[in-house]
C-alpha cells in the first residue's frame, strides 16, 4: 500500500538537491548518468613552459614534451603548462552519431587550442564552471585530431593562500583530476537543468505560493522515476517536467515585465592576478563566447574595455577577427567607450576624458562606431562630473550595479536620470538583480522583476549573466536556463537584447523618471581613497607632468609653425605622448589605482609608472631643447617656466637648491633676471624657551608647540584666528583599521572610534633660507617601527603653511590621519573633484549623512563660513573625513590582503594649511592648489638672452576658468586643443589671448570632433580678432576649443 508523501519542504527540497548533486551520492544519483560511453585519453604529453609563451613557441619543439597521467599535479602558482593530446575517434564505435566532448579538469584555468587557433576556455574546480569542449557534433568514427591545452597554474580568482582575497600562495599546485572523452546524455542533462530550476523556485518564491509545493512535488516525482530505474525513466521524467512547465508553471498569464538578457564577462584588467594573466583570461573567455554564438544564434554578449580588446588583437589575431565578424552580426557587443573600466573617484577630469578619448578611438577604428553606453558595473563610487564628461564623448547612457553594494542605505531607483554638477543629464540603469554575473537562475529572473524600484513607470530591466571578475563568461547551462525560464507562468518575458536597444526603450518613459543629482556615493570601500599611496602619488604627479609635456609640445609646434621649420623635437612625438597617457589610464583600472590588488599587480603598476616617467622625461628634454637649446651651451640663460594658465608669484628652486622669488606670466616663461621680485617682506621664525615656535610673514602668524602641532594661526589681514580655540591643528592620529572583510578596500564607521593622538615628538629645530623661507623640523614616533619626519615652512608672501612630510611606515592594520580642528562655523565641507567641487555635510543627521564617514577629494578641501574659511591643500591624497569643524585627511593604511606589504616603507608627501578671507572662490584656493601640485620649472637654457623673448602662449582673464589641457589636435597638425572648465560654480565670460595669430576657433566635443548638438545648444565661443577669442562658460561646464593656426 503506497503511503502519502510527507509535507516537510526541507526534506523534499534536499532530496531533489541530492538527487542531482555532483558531490553527494554522485556515484548513484542522476548526476552519474549525465555522461555515457566514457573513455580515457590514451596519451597525455606535457611541457612545463618557461613562462607565458605563445602557441607557436609551445609547439615548436615537441621533443620536450613528456608523458604524464591523470592525477598529476602541476605548479607552482602562475606557471604555465602545455599539453598535447592526440585523439582518435575511431577507437569507440558507440560514439558514432553522437556529439563528443573532451572533459578536462585541472582545477585551474586552461585554454583549448586546435589548428593553431584558441577555441575555448576551460575552468576547473568544484563548481564545474566549464569542463567540456565539443570535439564534434556528429561523430562519424573516422576523425583524428590534435588538441593542445594551455594550462595556467591559477584559479579563476588567482591563487589566494587562505581565502579568495588572501595574498597569493606562490607554491600552489593544481591537479589534473579529469581528462576523458564522453557523450553528454541530452535527456539527462535537460532533466538535471529543470530540477535545478525547481529547487531554485522553491527557495525563491514566497512559501505561500502554490508553485513552491508543486515544484517540490514534481521534483520528487521525477526522482521516483529512477527508483528503480527503468528503460523509459528519462522519457517519463521529461513528460512530468514538460507537463509542469507547460501547465502549472506555464500558460498565457505572462508577466508584463520584460528582461533584456545580455551575456557578460566582467574581466578585471588586474586584481588577484597580474596584467599578463588577464590577456589570457580574455582569450579564454571570449573564445568560449564565440563558440556559444555559433551554437546559439540568439545569444548576445557585451564586452567593454578597449585595452583588453587590443591585447586580444595583438596576441590572438585570429580570435580578434572572429570578434569583428560577430560584432557585425550583432552578437558580440563592444560597449563602454573607455580604455579600461576605471576607478570613478581618484582620476582627474582630464584622465576621465582620456579614458573615453582613447577608448572610443579604438572602438571606432576597429568596429566602426562609437559606444553609446558608458559601462562601469564594478567601480567604488562615481564622480558627479561623469555625466558631463561621458556625454561630451559621444555617450548617451550609463549602466552600473555597484551602488547595490552600499552597506547602509538602499539606493531608491533602478532606472533614473543622473544629473552632474553642471546640470548634464545621463539616462542610467542599475540591473535590478544587483549583479553583473547572474547564472540565469530562477532567483535572478524573479529578482529582476521583483526588485524593480520604479514600478508603474518602468516595466523592463537588464539581466547581465556570465561568470565574472576573473572572466569565464556565459555558459551552456545559462543559455539553456534562459530558454526554459522563458516559458514559466508569472515570470518576466526574456529577450536576448543589447544595451542600446534597452536604453532606447527606456527613453520612452524618461520624462517620468526621477532625477538623482550629484555623486553616486558607494557606502563601502572608502579605504580605496587611501590604500597604495605610491600608486596614487604617481598617478597624480604624472597627470600633471603629462599636462606639462603636452603644453611644451604645443609651444614647440607653434614655434616651428611660425618659423616655417620642421619639428626638430623627435618623430612620433604625438604617439609617444599617447602611449604615456595609456600607461596612466591602464593603472587607473578600478582595482589598481584604488589599491585593492595583489602585490604582483602593484609591482607591475609601479614599474609601468617608472617606465612612463623615463619616457615623459625624454619627451620633456627633447621639447626643451627645441625651445631653449641645449643646457650645456655657453652663454645660456636661466629660464623660469610656468605651464599653468595663471600668473604666478612664488618661490622657485634652482638646481643648486637656491631659492628665488619670482613673478612668471601664464603659459609662458621669463628669464630669471627678468622675473625676480626684488622687494619682499622677509619671513621670520622665532623660538620661546624651546616650547613654542612662531612663523610669520605678511599674511600669517603661526604658532607651534614643541610637538609640531599648530596651536594658533592668525590671518593678519583681519586678525582672525584659524585654529579652533583650545584645540591644535596638525595632530597626527592612528586608528585601528580592521574591516568586516574587504581588507584593502574598507574603512569602517567604527574605525573613527579608535583614534589615538601621537605625542612622542623629538628633535625639534628651526631653520631659515635667508629672508625667503623659514620653518621648523621635528620627528614623531608612531611606534617602535614607524616614525614621521616633518618640515613645516612658511615662504615670503605665501598665504599658506607648507607641511613636507616623510613617513617610515611599518604598521599592521592601522590608519594614519592628520587632523585640523578649525575655527569655522559651518555644516558643509567643500571638496575639489574633477573639474569642479562638491559640498558634503559635516553633520550626521541622517543615515545618508553618517554613511559618508570617509569621502574623496582631490587637491583641496575647505571649511568656510560667511567671510572666512580654511582650506587644506595636498599633492597626492584623496581620503577625507569631516565632522563639525574638524577636517581630517587620511594619509596611510596598512591592510594585509590581498597584498600583505601594502604601503610598507617610506613615503613622502606635502599638504598645506590656508586660512582665507571671503569664500574659497574669491581667495583663489583652486588656483593655489594647482600651483601647489605643479611647481614652477627652473631650467638652464642654451640660448643667449637676446635670443629669448619672454612670452605667454595663452592667457585668460578669469580665475574662475581653468585650462585643464593644452595639446595638439589628434588629427589636425595645425590645430591646438584648449580644454577649459569653470571651477567656481557660476556663469563666466573669459577672454582668451593667443601669442600666435590663429585663423579660426571652434567648439568641439571631448573627442575633438565637431558636434552639432553642442553648437546648436550653445554657441559659446566667438573669434574677436587674430589673437583673441571670447568664451561664455556655464557653472562647472567643460569646453573644448580647437584653434586653427
Automatic annotation (TrEMBL):
E.C. numbers: 3.2.1.24
Top-rank lineage group of the source organism: Eukaryota
InterPro entries, A to Z: Ams1-like_N, Gal_mutarotase_sf_dom, GH38_C, Glyco_hydro/deAcase_b/a-brl, Glyco_hydro_38_C, Glyco_hydro_38_cen, Glyco_hydro_38_cen_sf, Glyco_hydro_38_N
Catalysed reaction equations from the record: Hydrolysis of terminal, non-reducing alpha-D-mannose residues in alpha-D-mannosides
Domain (Glycoside hydrolase family 38 central) ranges: 523-609
SMART domains, alphabetized: Alpha-mann_mid (SM00872)
Molecular function in Gene Ontology: alpha-mannosidase activity; carbohydrate binding; metal ion binding
GO terms, biological process: mannose metabolic process; oligosaccharide catabolic process
Gene3D superfamilies assigned: Glycoside hydrolase 38, N terminal domain, Glycoside hydrolase family 38, central domain, Golgi alpha-mannosidase II, domain 4
Enzyme class: hydrolase
Pfam families per record: Alpha-mann_mid, Ams1-like_1st, Glyco_hydro38C2, Glyco_hydro_38C, Glyco_hydro_38N
Keyword annotations of the record: Glycosidase, Hydrolase, Metal-binding
Residues of the signal peptide: none
Family membership noted in the UniProt record: Belongs to the glycosyl hydrolase 38 family.
PANTHER family, alphabetized: ALPHA-MANNOSIDASE 2C1
Name assigned to this protein: alpha-mannosidase
